[in-house]
Amino acid sequence: MPEYLHYSNEDNKELNIIIPGSSVGFEKGFIKKIFDKFIEDKKSAITFNHPFFTRGDESWSGEELLEEQNALEEVMQEVDLENFSKINFIGKSLGAIVLSMFLRKNPQLFNKSTFTVLGFVKGSLDLKKINVKTLIVQGENDKFGKLEEIKKDLNKLSKYIEFVEIKGADHSYRDESKQPIYEEEAIKLLFNFLNQSNP
Question: What pLDDT is attached to residue 82?
Fold first, then answer.
């Protein structure tokens, strides 16, 4: 079982599942800020550390990301999905890639979900079967893909996807001096999207 954090509010029927990127776990930084915001808003949320991150490995398990997908599945088994009317999947970079692979194998989860990509990695995300409200938040200076290129690639799915660019931000929502000054803007965009996507 991977290391994970879980906040539950029985009165809240939305579950927010946050899958981190490759460089930072849930203990601090961007993922912790998102998780803490859900607690502040009294919204159920769960997040975890990828097993390779916990072990101190420098990279993930392989091209198919099987270990990461299995970790996501194990964490989801810790909550009763039947208790929730909506699931918000939130993936940061590698986390979004893991999510896209996992949802491809579990399309039934699309029935009551939204999908947020915080840092799209061009050429690595399979969204061909996406048919739910989706948000993509991309830094203007993201080396893994420019927003206009991503829009072009996903043109056929544009009716489902909201594209947002953060001016001056890189892949980790940092400025030129590597300060994460755009994280709060990304979090605000995420929560605005989730609030607007309420049933």
Answer: 86
Task: Give the residue from 39, 40, 50 showing the smallest Cα distance to 7.
Answer: 39
Structure tokens at 142: 């993201």
Q: Report the distance separating Cα 72 and Cα 18, nearest Å.
A: 10
Q: What phi-psi label fits residue 35: left (phi over 0), alpha (psi between -120 and 50 degrees) or beta?
A: alpha
Residue 75 backbone dihedrals phi, psi, to 5 degrees: -65, -40
- List of E strands, the chain: 4-7, 14-19, 45-48, 86-92, 113-118, 134-139, 161-166
Which class for 68: exposed (0-12), middle (13-18), buried (19 or more C-beta within 10 A)? buried
pLDDT tens digits along 138-148? 999 999 999 99
* Single-letter residue type at 166: I
What's the rounded Cα separation, in Å, for the pair 170 and 6?
29
**Positions of the chain with pLDDT under 50:** none
Are 45 and 86 in contact by the 8 Å Cβ rule? The answer is no
Write the pLDDT tens digit of every residue in 11-31.
989 999 999 998 878 888 999
